[in-house]
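Hi D.,

Good news: the full-assembly prediction came through. Inputs first.
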Amino acid sequence: MQKNLTGKLIAIIAILVIFVYGALGKIPGRDKDGKTNLQLGLDLKGGTHLVLQVHTSEAIAAATDNAVQQVQTDLAKIGVTGTTVTRSQNASEPGVMIITGVPSTKLSDVRDALTASTYGDYDLTSQPDGTIRLSMKATAVREARERALETSIETIRERVDTLGVAEAAIQKYGQGEDQILVELPGVSDPGQVSRVIQSTARLEIHEAVSGQGFPTEQEAQATAGPDTVVMQGGNGAGDNQWWVLKRVSIVQGPDFRDARPSQDQSGRTAVSFNLTTAAGDRFYEYTSANVGKYMAIVLDNHVKEVATINSAIRDSGEIAGGFNKDSAAELSLMLRTGSLPASITYLETRTVGASLGAASVKQGVIAAVAGMLAVMAFMLIYYRGAGINADLALILNLVILLGFMGFTGSTLTLPGIAGVILTIGMGVDSNVLIFERIREEMREGKNAHAAVQNGFAHAWITIVDTHITTIVSAAILFFVGTGPVRGFAVTLVFGLLANLFTAVFVSRTIFDFLLNRKQRGEALSI
Amino acid sequence: MELFREVNIDWLSKKWYLLSFSLLFSVAGVLSMLFWHGVPRGVDFKGGTLVYVSFPTTPNEDHLRTALDKANVKDFRIQRISGNMGAEANEEVIAVPEMADANHDAARQAIEAALASNYKDSTFRVEQTDIVGPTAGKQLTRQAGWAILWSLAGMLIYLWFRFELIYGAAAVVAVFHDTLITIGAFSLTNQEITLTVVAAILTLVGYSMNDTIVVFDRIRENLQTMRKADLSTVVNKSINQTLSRTVLSSGLTFLTVLSLYLFGGEVLHGFSFALVVGILIGTYSSIAVAAPMLVAYQDWRASKGKAVNLPGAKVRA
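Then the structure:
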């Protein structure tokens, strides 16, 4: 009995030391920027929490637009004329191409051409009225969406890196496949954040139907055809002209490999860019076939510049007009870090200033300490000697909880601090259960040893029951909740698990230790 | 020191008093939810923009209103935030209802610009902003709904597994009663229900089960030892035996939660209020709702001529 008890006591002290280290010390190999292992959540540190939605359908539409051009080229190659190839404008089927006007004699040739490996991602169906539909396969659609999401995440991460935010978190979010979570500790100006992320930074080059803009939208619409789109913009000559452009763009965001501010021949601030090799080839094909025609450089659905195609351009070019040093630098950054493959909308924005965060920490800690002192004082008054037992268990409980969080690198949020406070209150409940039972047993005449034994035995099942129900609640909160609520669930679960250990094992050991040292018949202070 | 030595109250005979007490609060809450304040939803669920602004001295709200009006900010609501323990604070929250996702940031920018250019009384600092668009609002509402459903289902299954279905049902009814009164309290005091408040309510679901389980455990134990007694006597004795534990432990948890409510600051105010109300009601409901429901169920079965069949009584030596 003696050896057992000593062993238990040593185990308890060892655990105390280990978890103190977990809470306060440095864990080797773990890169931490603060003095403690405990991570503070955004609501305590201050920072920005964003949920962005990526319109992945746009990426699919863009890929299909490219395919449309390819189809047009391929049809021309096999000598089929008079056909119209368009992308379906139906929003629910962004990856569908419709080919009409195929002469019935050429139908089989067209079908052969369009089932070549270049169109491996598409399924071909012939309608009874002679039109051909090319629909992107479901797997290809899913892959395209995932790629768009991942590229967006990468791009945003690169841009956010320029802000120099330590421990920024950018990841997929939620059950859907198109939402991104961005968490930036220490940044609490949402304006600055959106400037850096640039929600709809899309740069494209379209063919302009004419080199002249129209003064009003109506006039521009009048000359618009089936595959054109009307956009507003300037050409160094102010922003108030309307242009008719071909809907399908020749070059899009991801095609830009590099960009930097420069000056053009007339000394205006400009942006020089380089395209990727593949895009360069495409651009070369287009420009060499269209010398003398016009192309428009479009930024965020706004015409930036309209230029004449003087000669074939392969992969380097220049955009001038309407830039100052800052906007040229911004645009270059956007092009360099890759344009977003699709536009994004903000779904949720939450910012907490650093001062509010610090105030929250202070208030949370005060509340925790006040609550703990109140509970400890009460236990001492009500249970006398056994109260010391409970208070020790309570302190150990807290140490294990914080140590646990330190070891697992968990994040402490403001509701998390509330969870700690709740753990204190609910944790001491176990002790109350046991002590009340012991008192009852003693009232029925049992001696100290037997009372303690029976008290723990009877109370054990109830303690397990009550802890499991709250842990299940907290687990559900963890899975369904986000951020701060998760922090609450984590501290509650860890705290209750720690409590199962301290209230039963530690309290029991302390009781045994005390009972061992008592003379026979001496009363138990409870 | 001992407060509850040899308690012998006949709880079940008082069940109509207890029931009317419950009914009073439930009905008051439900009426408020239906006709008065409704269920005040926080920005997490109904969407919108909240900008928390702090000033070096107590701001003049009329000047703030004028400043926002001049900049054409529409439909805004200004509310003073009370500091710790009701002390006057120098913080205001400006709320603007939901806009489309496409204009996500517009309201916040408008408010900040309006204050910067039109509010000349003093400097100000934006402490916190919450912008929830319609898509996110719907998602969060859905998540909260699922969390509540899963919680209740989980509880029911666990209790069914540990005790029996009738115990589980009685406990779920008690928990439902607690949740209704807690939400009613929010409605009556016109406080907003945010995600953290829902988290508090879910925690209460677990906590209220605790109390109920302690009483049920004792009932089950006593049913085995008190074979001759009828159910009412057993239930009364069980409640009396666990009374000291119930009151003490709830009291201690209440103490810590009260500390949170008083000192924990404005951000957790709704959360701590939910816990304060919930713990009081949760303790009360184990005695006044769950246990009597057990007896009522047995009485109903007996009146139909079916055998009284509560687990514990089944076990023969």
